[in-house]
Automatic annotation (TrEMBL):
NCBIfam families: glyco_rpt_poly. The keyword Ribosomal protein does not apply. This is O-antigen polysaccharide polymerase Wzy family protein. InterPro entries: O-ag_pol_Wzy.
Length: 507
């Protein structure tokens, strides 16, 4: 085993060195300016490809533990580089037009910034090993005993399951209302108008996600998971009809990370994720990608039935990689931003958090921020996704379309390369934490699962959105209330049946 690990370490280190050499040569080539930027862009993409290969070799050497980093790498390449890859392969001569770059210089700098970010994430992940090595060893030795030995776990599991069932009614009502709104008015209209849902229903629906996360965090048996997984699965499938594919994709990726890390707690003979099951999951994943792209065709009024399966997959990669233009347009329009105020873009999720909850409104007397795509909102907001789209293409923005945002673009516009590096270090450390989270307490696992959904989508989301997604008042109050309720029931002597015996864990 050690020889196997050393072989992989040698390979990924060698590939990493070659990729850095190529990226350095690209930077040197760009110094000549002019058409040399085109050559430098090609070299940077080659260096990026080698960097991805080095990361892949590293991850596959211990994929059951490094699955979070593998998932992020896939998300990063799909959301930020998908269109770059398809354009280089199919429309190389039109790459400036398709990638919406004003020149080869901005194209090169965009790719170089993306390469730097991915490299720093990888480096931070590996360097953070010393912070979590003790925890990782504990997980390897003790497995899930820390969770199963906790006396409140059966009670917490039962309570979270019932909250999940009850809150699912409100979630399905809200989801159904949104689907009907989209069907009547169109997908783009959902960005310029809101679907009316009673306040009490929308508030109760907020418990659906944390209840499911807590239930998973108690490490239930396969039998105990059947109905909750069915409920959650139906919700995800129904959410496809809203047109917003990120909900189902991020949730499925969270489940992939959970089940792989959970499976790693069990002895080899007890593991569920066999090679056959993984192969079936990959086939199902390709089928899911095909169906998601069909949804995109229907959403845009294009049937797309004439495309082959392969062409549909390529179209999916291309459409998902549209976030590259956020980075390239940030480079092209940097002169229009005031460097004294650009830090506010990073803080927008926190601003949204303060103004859009009842506590903040009571204490600070703030009005809630409703993100609608109007000229008035774009000219007054600190939301980078709204500001950039309106700055570059006002007509597109007012039609309900947009570029979105990215942690890379927000970091760069706020603090330059230093901002990108700082955010990338944060992401690398976070994903190292995710790799060891199964050895932690049930609240940490629950919040970790919620955080994963935010972190894997950071290439196309606000840089600090994970703070408000994870540590919001609703979730924290729910965890506290659940713990207190479980403690009360346990103290009173209420005994909730375990259902089935816990899976055998590592001794």
């Amino acid at each position: 085993m050690m020889q196997f690990q050393r072989k992989f370490l040698l390979r990924d280190t060698l590939l990493l060195g070659i990729s850095l050499a190529v990226l350095t040569m690209a930077a040197f080539t760009s110094s000549f300016g002019g058409r040399w930027y085109s050559i430098a862009a090609n070299m940077t993409l080659a260096g990026l490809s080698l960097l991805n290969l080095a990361m892949l070799v590293y991850e596959l050497s211990d994929v059951r533990r490094r699955i979070p980093l593998l998932i992020f790498q896939g998300s990063y390449n799909l959301l930020l580089l998908g269109r770059v890859y398809t354009t280089w392969l199919q429309n190389y001569d039109r790459r400036l037009d398709i990638l919406e770059a004003d020149g080869y210089d901005s194209l090169y700098w965009s790719l170089q910034i993306l390469a730097i970010s991915l490299f720093v994430v990888y480096l931070a992940y590996r360097a953070a090993g010393f912070l979590f090595r003790k925890r990782e060893l504990s997980v390897a030795v003790e497995g899930a005993k820390k969770i199963w030995d906790h006396p409140l776990i059966p009670v917490i599991r039962q309570l979270s399951r019932w909250v999940l069932y009850i809150s699912s009614l409100a979630s399905f009502f809200s989801l159904g209302n949104t689907i009907l709104f989209v069907l009547r008015n169109g997908y783009l209209t959902s960005f310029t108008e809101t679907a009316g849902v009673p306040s009490i229903v929308s508030r109760f629906a907020l418990f659906f996600t944390p209840a499911f996360a807590v239930f998973l965090a108690t490490l239930p048996s396969a039998k105990q998971m059947r109905l909750p997984l069915c409920v959650y699965g139906v919700y995800l499938l129904a959410s496809v009809f809203t047109g917003r594919r990120n909900t189902i994709v991020t949730s499925l990726l969270m489940l992939v990370v959970y089940f792989v890390l959970r499976d790693n707690l069990l002895p080899k003979e007890k593991r569920i994720l066999t090679k056959r099951l993984v192969l079936l999951a990959c086939v199902a994943g390709l089928a899911g990608v095909y169906l998601l792209q069909m949804v995109a065709y229907l959403r845009s009024g294009i049937l797309g039935t004439g495309d082959s399966f392969f062409r549909t997959i390529i179209s999916f990669i291309d459409s998902q990689g549209a976030s590259f233009r956020v980075v390239v347009k940030t480079i092209d329009y940097m002169e229009f931003f005031d460097p004294q105020t650009t830090y506010r873009f990073l803080l927008f999720p926190l601003e949204l958090f303060v103004t859009n909850n009842s506590i903040g409104q009571t204490v600070f007397h703030t009005d809630p921020i409703i993100s609608l795509q109007t000229a008035e909102f774009a000219e007054s907001t600190n939301s980078y996704s709204h500001v950039l789209t309106y700055l570059v293409d006002p007509a597109r923005y007012l039609r309900g379309e947009g570029f979105g945002t990215s942690y890379v673009a927000e970091g760069y516009v706020a603090f330059g390369i230093a901002g990108v590096v700082a955010l990338s270090v944060m992401i690398g450390v976070a994903f190292r934490w995710f790799s060891s989270m199964m050895g932690r307490s049930w609240p940490a696992i629950a919040l970790g699962l919620i955080a994963i959904k935010s972190f894997v989508y950071l290439p196309r989301n606000y840089a600090l959105i994970w703070i408000t997604d994870v540590f919001n008042v609703t979730y924290l109050c729910f965890l506290l209330g659940l713990y207190l309720a479980a403690q009360l029931l346990y103290t009173l002597g209420t005994h909730l049946r375990r259902g089935t015996e816990p899976p055998e864990v590592k001794a």
